[in-house]
Design a protein that fits this description.
single chain, 8 strands, Glyco_hydro_26, hydrolase, glycosidase
């Protein structure tokens, strides 16, 4: 069925930085472009970063396997929370939503652009509180992605792997999400080569606590274009998708956005995550009804989806997804969050409430 701009999933205010800050991404000394000679790249000493992809495992301190966060039943509820997009862009502030729900998020979602500093403080705090971090790590523009595929950025990738491994607890890593969007400019071949190289380096570095989340838009599944970007079953831990309910698509419910994604996840036998979703509260009751239906649809139509992550971010017009929009929305949100189906797994939830 045709639904206008159902496939337009870019909505985040800070997300413009991923595309507009190309110069900064390319200029980082440890993040080379495809045209840069290897001698021009800043390479740390061999005792800091192994110089080659030699397939050997580096002995590491014990980490908690990434698969341990997959619920045996039900689904984790998480969010990216950013009500002031100008304050610390891309870094979630989950406490704002938790003060409303009086329940810790199962997943806290933050973003890191290519070439920008790794924010261990947010992820460390999430782990200490009992949340599982979801980190969306942008790969930069096509030129940087090609350099990564060619091995010019191995040192930077190894550094990221070691930083995430040092957390020791499970982390979901969404490497260069929504790769199917035309504005990304990615070629499927380059994307797959870069993904496989990054995934291999993480394995070499012993980052077994990091799960790789493959996440195009919902439309890539509907059109079948997802297959051209798929890096292979052995290279992916979770299958994800992004999709939003807007006035232009009649505030499409999950059942109209994600059935193709769900079928794909079942075929590839992977845990599934709706990594970004949101509903715009432009008409009375719309947001509340969407949340009520999402709660039912996940249990009855998509019972194998293991995580739902809401994009609780301030925007303008039909890109404002902030929760709750009103009392009815708050009631629907509380009903979803406190449903035992969506509570974090026992043992991961601190005894105290926020």
């Amino acid at each position: 069925m045709a639904r206008g701009d159902l496939g337009r999933t870019s909505r985040r205010t800070f997300g413009r930085g991923l595309l507009a800050a190309t110069a900064a991404a390319v200029a980082g000394p440890a993040f080379a472009t495809a045209s840069a000679r290897a001698a021009d790249a800043e390479t740390p000493p061999a005792d800091v970063f192994p110089a080659q992809l030699d397939g050997t495992e580096v002995p590491q301190a014990e980490v908690v396997p990434a698969a341990s966060v997959i619920p045996a039943a039900g689904a984790l509820f998480g969010a990216f929370v950013k009500h002031d997009p100008d304050r610390d862009p891309g870094i979630s502030e989950p406490e704002a939503l938790e003060r409303v729900t009086h329940e810790l998020l199962g997943i806290d979602h933050s973003f890191q652009h290519w070439g920008t500093p790794f924010r261990a403080d947010r992820l460390t705090e999430d782990i200490a509180r009992g949340r599982t971090p979801l980190l969306s790590w942008g790969a930069g523009p096509q030129a940087v992605l090609a350099a990564t595929a060619a091995g010019a950025n191995d040192a930077a990738v190894r550094q990221q792997a070691r930083l995430l491994r040092a957390l020791r607890q499970p982390v979901l890593l969404r490497f260069t999400w929504e790769m199917d969007l035309p504005q990304r400019g990615y070629t499927p071949t380059t994307f797959k080569e870069a993904w496989r190289r990054v995934r291999t380096i993480f394995r070499e570095e012993g980052a077994a606590n990091v799960a790789f989340v493959f996440c195009p838009t919902w439309l890539a599944y509907r059109t079948g274009r997802v297959s051209s970007f798929w890096p292979g079953d052995s290279m992916v831990d979770w299958v994800g998708a992004d999709g939003y309910a807007r006035p232009t698509n009649d505030h499409a419910p999950l059942t109209e956005l994600f059935p193709w994604f769900y079928d794909f996840g079942i075929r590839h036998d992977k845990p599934m995550i709706i990594a970004e979703c949101g509903v715009n509260d432009t008409a009375p009751g719309v947001q509340a009804e969407w949340l009520r239906r999402a709660r039912v649809d996940l249990k009855e139509t998509f019972p194998l989806v293991r995580a739902l992550v809401y994009f609780d971010s301030r925007g303008s017009g039909d890109t404002d997804w902030v929760l709750p929009g009103n009392r009815r929305t708050e009631a629907a949100l509380l009903q979803l969050v406190h449903d035992p189906y969506f509570l974090p797994r026992p043992g991961r939830h601190p005894s105290g409430r926020p």
